Amino acid sequence: MTRVVDRGAIVAAYVGIGMAATIAISFLLVIPIEPIYWLLTIPAGLLIGYYANQRSDRRAGPWGRIIANGLFAAAVTAISIAILLLGVKALFFFADDGYRDASQGGTLSCRTGAECVMARYVAAGRGDELAAAGVTDGATFTTFYWNQQLATAATLVGICVVAGFIGSLAYGATRPRRPASAAAAAPGSPAG
């Protein structure tokens, strides 16, 4: 085999994209609870790292291939998780028009986009934090905001890939072994 990863790991990467999309829709759009999205990155990586090898039916073979399968599928999943997070953040960042219901004090008076998102931060009592970071207007807030989002996305990628590595190690340690009769019948094996 000349491939770096098995065909099953490629299929698992597609499953990882679907899993990332499902988690993003569920916890960034439908029920927007971002910390759950972050937490689900860990089991997503573990599962996809394991599944990449299970799907490849990796019963035998070098540990390097097992780890490569898990890391590949986890990396694709991790990048999907990061892209979806940034996409949803961009949607809400650029479309924010300052609307709040009456229980939160009514609509904010601001221009759509960065100015309204900054106004939300200030209304939530984070004005001093912004001032300490040198945020004074929409342009400096945009830089501040996207630096935070990119750092979060990079952290999620790292967490998911590490979890995928652990998942591939778990598969390697618990994988089903080839039955003795199959090993004896394998081409090139010494006749016993």
Characterization of the model:
The protein has 192 residues and is an all-alpha fold. It has one domain (7-176). Helices cover 73% and strands 0% of the residues. The protein is built from six helices and no strands. It has helices at residues 7-30, 34-55, 63-95, 114-132, 138-174, 180-185. Helix 1 packs antiparallel against helix 2 (34-55) and helix 4 crosses helix 5. The longest helix has 37 residues, at 138-174. The protein is elongated. The mean pLDDT is 88.
In short:
It is built from six helices and no strands.
Which key features would you list for this structure?
192 residues, 6 helices
Q: What's the N-to-C terminus distance? A: 27 Å
Number of strands: 0
Number of helices: 6
Mean pLDDT: 88
Shape: elongated
Major sheet size, sense and barrel closure: none
Beta-strand fraction estimate = under 5%
Chain-wise SSE layout:
Layout: H1 7-30, H2 34-55, H3 63-95, H4 114-132, H5 138-174, H6 180-185
Helix pairs in contact: 1-2, 1-3, 2-3, 2-5, 3-5, 4-5
